[in-house]
Specification:
- The protein starts with a helix and ends with a helix.
- α1 runs parallel beside α3.
- 16% of the residues are buried.
- The chain has 73 residues and is mainly alpha-helical.
- It has a single domain, classed as AhpD-like (Up-down Bundle).
- Helix content is 81%, strand content 0%.
- The longest helix is centred in the C-terminal third of the chain and has 32 residues.
- It comes from marine sediment metagenome.
Length: 73
């Protein structure tokens, strides 16, 4: 079973990767209320950024292929 701290840290990373502004504000504030260490919060933010950048890079490849080949979406 995952404890509440881990759930909140996962929610922060997911919020970053989803580009959800209200979500990240909510979950960072909630983590701080739970006295989760700022270093841990920053670490999961960095992981979320890596996921977001990876997904954006892959989307760019798909877009380029579609435009280059004049494919329909």
């Amino acid at each position: 079973m995952i404890d509440d701290k881990v759930k909140e840290l996962i929610a922060i990373g997911a919020s970053v990767s989803a580009n959800c502004h209200p979500c990240i504000k909510y979950h960072v504030n909630k983590a701080r209320e739970m006295a989760i260490d700022e270093n841990e919060i920053q670490q999961v933010i960095e992981v979320g950024k890596m996921v977001r950048k990876g997904a954006a890079g892959e989307m760019d490849k798909v877009i380029s292929a579609i435009v280059k080949d004049n494919k329909e979406l």
